[in-house]
Amino acid sequence: MRVMPLAADSLGTRSMATYVETGPLRLLVDPGATLSPRRYDLAPGPEEAEALARAGSRIETYAVRATHVVVSHFHQDHVQLDPRLYAGRQVWAKDPRRMIDAHQAATGREFWRAIAAGCRLEPAEGRWVELDGVTLRFSPALPHGREGSGFGYVVAVTVDDGMRFVHASDLQGPASPVAAAYLIRERPDLLYVSGPPTYLAAQVGAEVIRHGVENLVRIIGETGCRVIVDHHAVREPRFRDRLRAVFDTGRAVTAAEYLGYRDNCLEAHRAVLWRRRPGHARDAAGGR
After folding, report:
1. Kind of pairing between the strands at 128-131 and 134-138
2. Are 170 and 194 in contact (CB under 8 A)?
3. Count of domains in the chain?
4. Which H helix or E strand runs over 55?
5. Domain range for residue 87?
């Protein structure tokens, strides 16, 4: 099995876009990427804009190869509404009618209207698919962060060809014990998960972050899996200190490290990047 993160926060842009290839399966997961419009009260700089352009190019390139597409939920950093990315393919997507918050429901309905005519589109939740020796399993709707967070639900996907890869977007740790139990039950060999949102500790509460770290350490301990931990987890400069218990297992890497690159967490370092540019105050404010 070949697992390739195409875009990620540790590669410079908000995304968990991933390409998986095994046997007859050419799977594109969450083909979205975006930038935070304001961080540290600053707009994205040129470095982030360039990273987003590179991410978009990689996603489009691998979309051409893909035979199947998964959309875990309908936040902009996980989905695009461009029908060309899905045309002629089998697409499994979060059901926009059930277990969904109002914002995602509206985007989800728009997504289904935009692409349904050009592809084979089915709800993902709970589905089990066999493809010539490769199994795909989709979770029920799992909380986007802690239960009752208001951010809705996501669907995780397991690809199993003898090796088990689980892509679990935006579980934020997982913060939810239900999501943690599901991931342990799947017994992944490789897990790609959005880690605890340490940069939002003041908003979500220290307990949510602590539970996310504890749950991820427990998943590693009970399954022995390797973990790609990225996305929400790497959006502040000190993320390695905050997630020390996870990295100290020796089983966790960022998406950049998984690919053999150095971390390039541009959003986390946005303030520093702006300070290095001449005329940064004017440019960072968007020319005001």
Report:
1. antiparallel
2. yes
3. 1
4. helix 46-65
5. 2-284
